[in-house]
Design a protein that fits this description.
The strands form five sheets. Strands 22-21-20-19-18-17-29-28-27-26-25-24-23 form a 13-stranded antiparallel beta sheet. Strands 1, 6, 7, 8, 9, 10 and 11 form a seven-stranded antiparallel beta sheet that branches. The two termini are about 55 Å apart. The chain contains 27 helices and 29 strands. By secondary structure, the chain is α+β, with helices and mostly antiparallel strands. It is globular, with a radius of gyration of 30 Å.
Length: about 900
Amino acid sequence: MAGRRILSLAPFIPLVQVIFPGLARPQASHAQPPIQNAAVPATEPTGSNRCKVCHSTEVEGYARSAMAHALRRAGQEPSGTVTTPNGKITAYASPTGSWQRLETAGDVSNYHIDYVIGSGNHASGYLVDIAGHLFQSPVAFYKSRNSYDLAPGYEKTPDPDFTRPVAEGCVFCHAGSALYVSGTDNQYRDPAFPDEGITCERCHGPTGKHLADPRAGTIVNPAKLEPGARDSICEQCHLMGVTRVLNPGREFRDFQPGQRLESTFTTYHDVLPPNSAPGTFKVISHVEQLALSACARNSQGRLWCGTCHDTHNKPAQPVEYYRSRCLTCHTANFPAGHAGKDSNCIGCHMPRRDAQDGGHTAFTDHRIQRRPEEATGSAPAGEIAAWREPAAELKTRNLGIAYISAGLQRRSADSLVRGYRLLTEVQQQFSSDPEVFTSMGTALLIGKQASEAEFAFERALALQPNSPVAETNVAAAHQQAGDIASTLAHLERAVALDPVHPPATSALISLYRQQGNPAKADDLSEKVRAILSGQPAQNSGAAVQFTAAPASNSARAAEADFKNLKVLNGIPSDQLIPSMRFITSSLGVQCTFCHVEGHFDDDSKNEKQIARSMMRMMYAINKNYFDGTREVTCYSCHRGMPRPNGVPAVAVGSPPPGRADVIGLPTDLPSADQIIDNFIRALGGTAALEKISTRVETGSMQVDGKSFGVEFFDKGPDKELLIQHGSAGDSLTVLDSNSGWISAPGRPTRNLSGPDLDAARADADLQFALHIKDMFPELRVEYPEAVDGHDAYVVAGNREGWPSWKFYFDEQSGLLMRVVRYAESPLGLDPTQIDYTDYRAVDGVQIPFTWTSARSGSRSTIQIETIQQNVTIDDDKFMKPGSHKEPISQPTPAR
């Protein structure tokens, strides 16, 4: 029981910066350091302490390695100053921690340093947490010089700022785990990094099976894997290439040791002509460098990182240790003039060099050259190729996205056009893939094809309806097309979704001023400042109001997906089905009351014509008498009857007083937070819930007197497959990250969107109880009610622009008994009620074995028979079928 992501096309260069330059600077941050994890009883060791019980030597040795210290919470960091062309940045310490002060153009801002990134062996970078969003400091501390200087990538920036977002891909190689929020640039749940520094599990995989059965075969030993999977463990952090492309629906954190990286993402590198220079030396290219060496080329795949490196033991005498590794292969006598076997092999053949991407420091060259030469020139900005190819069906898709990413980084029109053309070849196959449309929109926008960029970005937005990044991309396309009204609308929604998304806030403030509305610009600036500083905003009188209402399929009108609409044309596509359900609920009828079965576009039934007339009448009443507010609905008159009763009922006795007659709530009610926390404890507690990664359930479903088998496959955090085994064949309801669909025998596949997709995400969330407070910023306790004879606390959950959900918790057990949620439609709110009963403990977590879902005139019950948890579920179960869409025409190459 439960309750995207946009791919970064160029590291640190968001697309909107190309269109909306000059991002606004966040004001002074006074955020407190993230709360430390609650103490864990000594009887339950966690993290590497679990491994230390049996592998103390390895754990203690690894604790001295750089990887173990790749990320940490900030302490009392060194003091110093860096002068920039337009100001200076000063690092200083205080009793409240380490801070950095930015002074530029007469403006002074102070930023609390929350995390230090990097082991410190070469350099230390710094991250700031602003309202749950991570940004990088523009300065780093370099150990070799014992001083601060600009961080890598800021060297040519005249006015460096704290606005560089830290995406999941940026911290993937530094943190053991990160609670990244999909669909955002840089938002994280608290604590952002449950595991700081690289953990044992990043190389050896999840430890649960091994702890239950501690033997060699239940844990990953990288050295025992086939070469591709073996090398993938090191490549996840030591092979960056030109760009990395995530597979559909995947996050970087999905990679597990034992797999090949290509099951999660593909790395692309430059194709070097024969006998050409190896390109500019980079830090994060150890794997590429090693592959160029004669040692690797002549080893038939036997030489790998683990041949020379022992991550469990930092050598006390590096020269002697690495010489011994060389001499395991180089056993013959050396030629005359060569240094003896007691020389420093790596000092000559693997010298330290300045790195292009490593700031002001030097790193070891892994090319193992006989006569070391400097890497001359930059790599060619032409052909790129996969380091290892992904699955055949993803080759064209991933390569197309990679070329557009490379083209954006290198400002190469040829790469952009090449990537775009590749994606048009597979557009139909990946019609529900937001990454494909985001990349296509990028190429089109750079190529000045604004109208087609709008289509591509709006399609991506429809697939990721609550992504501020997707909204900002759409705004960029509308602005290029000169449609300022639409630009404002999408920017306002982006800011409503995430007020700490600088590309949207800065662009919106600038646009308000351009449109002659300084009051709105000032109010938005104040609103952002208040969020960042944790203080209430002071409005100037023209307060900016945003509604983060569901906007999925806002780019597609209902008539784009449904035939023969005469009244509901123009509404968002995802509101058509809730509108139909609202009518059937209000009238107490089925779809065939108005429609011809199997031919829903047929107009032959008179009831359908009457329904259209009634909807027009309802709209007219609300427009003419209620200023357009939806006061009158179908239910106002019908009350569950096909034809309203025009004769008042004769009253029999006085009605009992309702809740409206009671003034105020009882004074002894617990708070919403207390009720939710009690629910979590009743389920088994946070620790027990967090251990559940997958769940497989089998059972039966009763609908309208018919019974059939059902199976559920849930895989955290956001994948679910429901199979209903009917006599005509299997019906499927699938959620795969940010998209979902329903298919049934003999019917076309229908995409989930809007409130249906929102509900599906909640249903698929195996830790929904832990996320209720995040999902609903406002939780309000309402008057208690009775559910099936049990007294229940009632909590209403509200999100700006969405209909409320209501949760009913048993006062005695604390468990969730009922959820009532609503779908918005132009005609009224369409309710769904779900009751949960028969809770039983499975693996320490209470799970309801009976669920009853009800709408007016419709009721179904699912009875679960078996549950298995933390079993392997292949991602192929959640793969989406292709649908048929016309390809977007090709762009004009950028000039």
